[in-house]
Automatic annotation (TrEMBL):
GO annotation (BP), single: lipopolysaccharide core region biosynthetic process
One Pfam entry name: Glyco_transf_9
GO CC entries: cytosol
Highest taxon listed in the record's lineage: Bacteria
Membrane-traversing stretches: none
Keywords (A to Z) from UniProt: Glycosyltransferase, Transferase
Keyword Transcription regulation: no
GO MF: ADP-heptose-lipopolysaccharide heptosyltransferase activity
Protein name: ADP-heptose:LPS heptosyltransferase
Length: 298
């Protein structure tokens, strides 16, 4: 059987913005075996996205093991050179990506929304793609806290962490059960939000359980993280705080039940710093509460 292999060796939010492109590949090659090279821990979300026949575990841009001579290699990771080299080493017959570093395709354009970026690339190669085809299937399990408000104070880097004391002030004003999510390493941060210990779910949920929680939540409050992107994938109302990343490139669909908060004029734009981006710090507790009210009133 012919094989199509797509590379997207990044994190949760990065995977979710690539869902429309992955579905476009599935539609274009319905008889091919579709492989996705990505982080192994994302396997539950890959299943919920549907259409992928095999997850090939990827460790960043290290060489891929156990894959040889795919019929088609698709670079959904970047524009090279490192990602191109990873795919070239597999000996594909055909290559789909952006132009440069030995590959043909459209020129990489800065400032595009990530969902649109990959659909634009595929369209240039003759593959129809719908950037709005981003919704996930709901997990087969139920939520551990159906109807709760989910607060997610953590982020991979400090640049996207709104001060936890502000999350605590927001949580204290919400007249509904509030649960707090995060990793095991973020449990102390989650506890600082000030909800009862039994409602601190940080470190207690696997990825399928997290998806079920978001799918059945009343509302999500989060920085621009993978949890925010899950809220987009389930059309769960969300208030999302943006720091270094522009809303125009990483935000939700315009027709979704979401509010994006940022002070764009203050944006420093470095996603890898330890301190919060000024665009994030410019968002006040009152701003978030106003967003909550706008989404939940009536």
């Amino acid at each position: 059987m012919s094989t199509v292999l797509a590379l997207r060796a990044l994190n949760l939010g990065d995977l979710l913005v690539a869902v429309p492109a992955l579905r476009a590949l599935r539609r274009h090659w319905p008889e091919h075996r579709l492989q996705l090279a990505t982080s192994a821990w994302l396997e539950p979300i890959v299943r919920l996205g549907g259409g992928i026949d095999e997850l090939v575990p990827a460790n960043g841009l290290h060489p891929l093991d156990g894959v040889e001579n795919p019929d088609v290699a698709v670079n959904l990771h970047g524009a090279g050179p490192q990602s191109n080299e990873v795919l070239d080493a597999l000996g594909p017959r055909h290559r789909i990506g952006h132009r440069g570093h030995g590959w043909d395709g459209p020129i990489w354009t800065d400032g595009l929304h990530e969902r649109q970026r990959w659909c634009r690339m595929l369209t240039a190669h003759g593959i129809d793609c719908d950037a709005d085809d981003l919704l996930l299937r709901r997990p087969d399990i139920g939520s551990v806290a159906p109807g709760a408000v989910v607060v997610h104070p953590g982020a991979g880097y400090g640049s996207r962490r709104w001060p936890v004391e502000r999350y605590a002030q927001v949580a204290a004003k919400i007249d509904r059960r509030v649960v707090v999510t995060g990793t095991e390493r973020e449990r102390d941060l989650a506890l600082a939000v000030g909800v009862p210990d039994e409602d601190v779910l940080a470190g207690r949920l696997d990825l399928t359980e997290l998806a079920a929680l978001i799918a059945e939540a009343h509302l999500v409050i989060s920085a621009d993280t993978g949890v925010a992107h899950l809220s987009y994938a389930y059309r769960t109302p969300s208030v999302v705080l943006f720091g270094p990343a522009p809303v125009e490139q990483w935000g939700p669909p315009a027709d979704g039940p979401h509010r994006c908060l940022t002070v764009a004029s203050a944006r420093r734009g470095d996603p890898f710093t330890d301190d919060p981006d000024p665009a994030l710090l410019g968002v006040s507790v009152d701003d978030v509460l106003a967003g909550v009210a706008a989404l939940t009133s009536g």
